[in-house]
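On to our target:
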Amino acid sequence: MPRRLQISPQARGEELAAAVAGLRAHLDSGAVAVIPTDTLYGLAANAGDARAVAGVYALKGRSFDKPLPVVVRDLAQAAELSSRLPANFEALAAAFWPGPLTLIVPVAPHLPPALTASTGALALRQPDQPLLAALLHATGYALTATSANRSGEPPCRTVDEVAAQFGADCPLLVDAGPSPSALPSTIVDLCGPQPRIVRAGAIAAERLARFGIVG
């Protein structure tokens, strides 16, 4: 049976520190965990570890031609993961981070090719969730953040829903109660000549229009 770690959604102090320490040891080993985010539950693994990335693909049953999104600690870490931050990246990050806006940028060459499905582009965002934010600061590395569901199955808002899909296959489930949103993050591709929305989500297109983002 998978191990389940219960934590309050707004954990602070010793409760938060204990959860972060346990999760960090698990992730440092190259393993995958189900974690809460500010959108839906996600599959977290060290985004810079090729073995950990492969574990996410295997657990999810995801096709290797589909990239994995990642979450970052802050703007500085985002810059480390990109070969070049597009001109409007900082304005969008200042307006919507931390929060449910994923930005696709050119990827830095040191990351595992499987993470981006060899596309040369990386989808990243800064989450607005206390446990995940603390974990990103503690580990020092970015984390995968693809939704915690089998490929082709609906995304999950609770750990019980995740467990029903994965059974005993995922060794660690972090339960912080129902996710705060039923919507995924909005994804904007900044790699082309015209920034565009490639997935509608929690941030409405109208809020992005003033940045020159088209649907």
Summary: The first helix runs from residue 13 to 28.
